[in-house]
Write a structure and sequence with these properties.
With about 625 residues, this protein is of the alpha/beta class. The chain contains 24 helices and 23 strands.
Length: about 625
């Protein structure tokens, strides 16, 4: 057997470079790049291996390990899980900085390969710098924290262990059912050791997307259930996007006359003006979709994990409604006693359509859906209409961006009030033009994620919409984008603090406390000039007042050759509301405040509508 002597770090890099995938019929690298911040634990061995191949496998330097991993996650989302970025950190705080990002990837079922330095397998120099010691378990390090937030976890203590570990990590990240982050801890001495690796370990491998077909029995039962429906509704989730099933979903809905609602992750799988689109569903949803959900007798959930913001904490649906769940993951397909169809979304929709034959839902139901959606669109039109107000609403800023972007451009957000305002008020001009990370709702994803999304497709504009709270939490990848030449447009909607949490707090009868800057324990109220802050990082900074100035600023940003940050102050309490959805949050059962007592009475009313897993 032919062998090649390499350090473990060199072998790891060579293996990653041998992995290939196909996108639109073209063979491309499965791992097109690495995000890295080097420190002790990954700088003397892994960086040596990466430097030698820097032209074939580019390494990008971020400013924060969490930001790098978030950029990698957004890259994978933009590539529909067909390509995977690597993020590497040193031992200690560099590693734990990535734990939050790992949770984002795990929650959203997105692949990213995380490589972190670890202690010495020999333990000879222990305890090393930044090593956290566990008195009763010397095998434990901070890297064990990743066990809870990754799909695959391993620690390499001997160089030959990567022969088994790396293929399993790749298989996990590419599995449509188990897809998520893979983490590998690299002991420092093991990285440096030389081993005679089998040459065939480094032979190119082309990975084609797996499309598991559904069980024929499950398919038959789903078709029988759907044929009995008088008021069916499809809920399209992010799995539709990752299966590249947008066209198949459109064909399925059109052939069988079924309205389609979108989850947050599934937003823009259909264009806004698709004749069977009824808008987003749930807490951040449209009245049209929510009303139809309340009357639907059969709900076909495609590629969604049915989180509480989609189901309104399971109060959205009629008590006797039935579910068909099409999902590559068995875990998701079996929720709430749904009729499972475990399989790839594209293949399952195609085969379910064939099983249904010429069956179509009643025209009256489709016409009812169209009327509801038209009313919702009129409401959105009014909410997003330009204004001369000094403090525009989030919805009006969203409307301005929506009017000015092209159908290929991507708008991206994650936390605070913008997910709701974007999900409800955004009118997608084309599929695949919207990214709202709301599985983990990670503050800080917005700018880092935009950097990764732009890296995935430099030909389109990427617009990150971020609140002042999220901006202050993580903004350094503005500098990363300037350094790397990946131009972004960052819109900072400044409403003076954590306004959406202040909204929730007040809705539960609690006075504003520690969320808005004016309600915090402060010496004096100082507002940040985000435009000047961005300029200090090499970006173009523009301060806009009102929608007219904002639209002028946005046009300048579109024409600019580098990242541009637009700072606009927005109204802190004017939200898009009234969609009829209820969200369960902890509400005090006892309080001397009458406002809290009223909130708890409303909480009990909401609980009465809740489905309990059946």
């Amino acid at each position: 057997m032919q062998t090649i002597e390499l350090t473990m770090a060199q072998a790891l890099v060579r293996f990653l470079m041998a992995q290939r995938t196909r996108i639109d019929g073209r063979e491309v690298p499965l791992f097109p790049g690495v995000f890295a911040i080097f420190g002790h634990g990954n700088v003397t061995c892994l960086s040596e291996a990466l430097e030698a191949v820097k032209d074939e496998l580019p390494t990008w330097r971020g400013q924060n390990e969490q930001g790098m991993a978030l950029a990698a996650i957004a890259f994978a989302k933009a590539k529909k899980r067909r390509q995977i970025m690597v993020a590497t950190s040193s031992i200690g705080p560099g590693a734990t900085n990535m734990v939050t990002a790992a949770a984002v990837a795990h929650t959203n079922r997105l692949p990213v390969l995380l490589l972190s330095g670890d202690y010495f397998a020999s333990r000879a120099p222990d305890p090393v710098l930044q090593q956290v010691e566990h008195f009763g378990d010397p095998t434990m390090s901070v890297n064990d924290a990743f066990r809870a937030v990754t799909r695959f976890w391993d620690r390499i203590t001997r160089p030959e262990q990567i022969l088994q570990s790396l293929p399993q990590a790749v298989a996990t990240m590419l599995d449509p059912a188990d897809c998520g982050p893979a983490f590998i801890a690299l002991c420092q001495d093991a990285q440096a050791e030389v081993f005679a690796y089998p040459a065939r370990f480094f032979e190119p491998v082309v990975h084609d997307p797996r499309r598991p077909r559904p069980d024929l029995g499950e398919l038959r039962q789903a078709a029988e259930l759907l044929r009995m429906a008088a008021r069916p509704l499809v809920i399209a989730g992010g799995g539709v996007r990752y299966s590249e099933a947008e066209a198949e979903l459109s064909a399925f809905a059109s052939r069988h006359n079924i309205p389609v609602a979108e989850t947050i992750a599934g937003r823009a799988v259909l264009a806004h003006d698709h004749p069977l689109n009824v808008g987003p569903i749930g807490i951040l949803g449209a009245v049209s979709a929510n009303r139809l959900a309340a009357e639907a007798d059969v709900v076909v959930a495609v590629g969604t994990r049915l989180q509480d913001f989609t189901t309104a904490s399971w109060t959205l649906f009629a008590p006797d409604s039935r579910f068909i769940a099409i999902n590559a993951a068995r875990f998701d397909a079996c929720k709430h006693r749904a009729q499972p169809v475990v399989g790839d979304a594209l293949v399952s929709l195609r085969e379910l359509s064939a099983a249904l034959g010429a069956w179509r839902a009643p025209d009256g139901w489709r016409e009812r859906a169209a009327r509801e959606y038209a009313a919702w669109n009129a409401f959105v039109e009014e909410r997003t209409r330009p204004t001369n107000a000094e403090l525009p609403t989030y919805a009006q800023v969203v409307g301005a961006v929506n009017r000015l972007v092209s159908e290929r451009d991507l708008v991206l957000t994650a936390a605070g009030g913008l997910p709701g305002e974007l999900c409800m008020n955004w009118r997608a001009k084309a599929p695949d033009s919207f990214d709202c990370e709301f599985g983990y709702s990670c503050m800080g994803y917005e700018i880092s994620g935009a950097w990764g999304a732009k890296m995935a497709d430099p030909s389109r504009e990427v617009v990150a919409m971020v609140g002042d709270g999220s901006y202050l939490m993580m903004n350094s990848d503005i500098y990363s984008s300037v350094l790397s030449g990946h131009k972004l447009i960052v819109v900072v909607c400044d409403n003076g603090g954590f306004a959406v949490i202040d909204r929730l707090q007040r809705a539960k009868g609690i006075p504003g406390f520690n969320n808005q800057l004016e309600d915090c324990r402060i010496r004096e109220l100082v507002r940040v000039d985000f435009a000047k802050h961005a300029e200090a990082m090499g970006a173009i900074g523009i301060r806009a007042r009102g929608i007219g100035e904002f639209e002028d600023a946005f046009r300048r940003a579109l024409a600019a050759d580098r990242t541009t940050v637009i700072h606009i102050e927005t109204h802190p309490r004017d939200w898009t509301e009234g969609n009829g959805a209820w969200w369960e949050t902890g509400t005090p059962m006892r309080s001397p405040r009458e406002s809290v007592q009223r909130a708890f009475a409303e909480h009990l009313t909401g609980k009465q509508r809740q489905r309990l897993g059946v």
